[in-house]
Amino acid sequence: MQYFPLFHRLNKGVCLIIGGGHVAQRRARALISAGATVHLISKQILPKLESFLIDSGASFDKQAVDLTKLANDYELVVAATNDKAVNLAIANYANLNRIPVNVVDDPAAGDFIFPAVIERASLTVAVSNSGNSPVLSRLLKQQIDAYIPSTFAALSDFVGNYRQRVKVSIPEDNIRKTFWENIIQGGVAEAIYMGKEQRAHDLFESALADPEKFNLQGEVYLIGAGPGDPELLTLKAFRLLQKADVVLYDRLVSAAVMAFIPPEVELIYVGKNRDNHAVPQDDINQLLVDQARKGKRVVRLKGGDPFIFGRGGEEIQTLVDFQVPFQIVPGITAASGCSAYAGIPLTHRDYAQSVQFVTGQLKSGTVDLDWAELISPGKTLVFYMGLKSLPIICESLITYGMQPDTHVALIEKGTTHEQRVLVSNLTEIESMLASAQVSSPSLFIVGSVVQLAEKLSWFNA
Ligand code: SAH
Questions:
Q1: Which of 332, 347, 369 is the last residue of a domain?
Q2: 153 located within any domain
């Protein structure tokens, strides 16, 4: 560690900035927003900076700095002129007077650097890479920023208000620590993130009434993992995954998404095994309840969106029956992900005014669908789970009146590095399939929008 991070209260003395350009302006803003009294010296001062100083009540001298005449009791000094020699002379003056100094563009010449800062009321996150690259620090700051819920400050205030009461009410250190962990990572915090403050207070009071019982109260997050590209996870999905104790997942969740799960989290696979036997749905439902009842934060991670051909509804129904608290996080469904990555807009003013998601799963050897209802001009059809039944689907669509030359696309492993897109038409796709050896998961899109793929393709280009 080249620099020690301190959070410094700037309310005693005056902070001196020498320089009047853009960097001086950023420093002035940062210091003043932290409550500092600022004095700035520079022969030239950007008009914007000057009016900012006036508005915020900071003093300034519009003249070249004379180091021999400077006071020696500044709280800190920022050397922000565009003259390297002057900056070094300022650093020298500060060193002689034992005032901490920051030298712009030359971190090694000074004592401290300005971190990239995330501010959410009482919460402050400061990022530095020891002055190597402010751009990189800002980038990291943005990523952390995106990860912290915008309402995090509300949580910070909320727990701050209860801190003393909890200390008195739960004297045992261990129980209190677990209690706080469960509050901050559990339903109370989630209620605050959702803007439901009253619910958060109610949950908190009932937790405080019986902390030991509360500590054993788990919950379930039913999360859509999207179609494969891990960057298609939502921020919420990512955040909740980081606090899981156990994750139940299946075949469709890509390895790249699984890599986002912290290593200490317990993983339970509930997909199909080598003999193609899946864990029965009832067993999965029960497993969710059992894990939550052990006091765990359980993530049920599903490919795409949990409510689109995902049986998410059944799992949630069981949780409702057993009164296990839960949240549902939608994901990008395969139709959205695959169509976007194949350059096929599912609707388009000139080609399709509606879109229908259909299951192509075979039931006793046939696809049990209302074919006549599916076919209408200006509609895009998206078949999930239709790879095996693709010949039947094409044949039936033609039988029920769809033009045989209607465009179709088969998208294999959409949004992943292995994505393949086969574009054809209703009559020819079957023979194409025979030579292409397409495997699961694959999505079948039918409709005139498919012809746009040639022009709009970008991911496979
Ligand atoms: N809940 C999921 C769908 C589950 S059904 C969702 O919203 O996407 C499983 C079917 O989804 C697969 O048979 C396939 O048709 C489709 N699918 C899921 N991921 C896919 C992907 N990356 N590429 C192509 N098809 C996919």
A1: 332
A2: no
Pocket (CB within 6 angstroms of ligand 1): 227-228, 252, 302-305, 308-310, 333-334, 338, 384-385, 411, 413-415, 440-443
Decide if 304 contacts 227 (C-beta within 8 A). yes
pTM: 0.80
Residue 188 has pLDDT above 90, yes or no: yes
Looking at the 3D structure of the chain, how many domains does it have? 3
The Cβ of residue 238 has, within 10 Å, a number of other Cβ atoms equal to 17
User: In angstroms, what is the span from residue 412 Cα to ligand 1's centroid?
Assistant: 10
Q: What is the pLDDT of residues 90-142, one digit of tens each?
A: 999 999 999 999 999 999 999 999 999 988 877 889 999 888 888 898 899 88
Whole-number Å distance, alpha carbon 256 to ligand 1 midpoint, is 16
Q: Spell out where 104-148 has E strands.
A: 116-120, 123-127
- Would you please indicate which residues are annotated as catalytic (active-site) residues? 250, 272
What atom of ligand 1 comes closest to residue 386's alpha carbon? 15
Structural domain includes residue 233 = yes
The closest of 305, 385, 383, 310 to 346, measured between CA atoms, is 383
CA of 92 from ligand 1 middle (Å) equals: 65
Parent domain of 21: 14-114
The encoded tokens of residue 199 equal: 């619910």
**Do residues 264 and 317 share a domain?**
yes
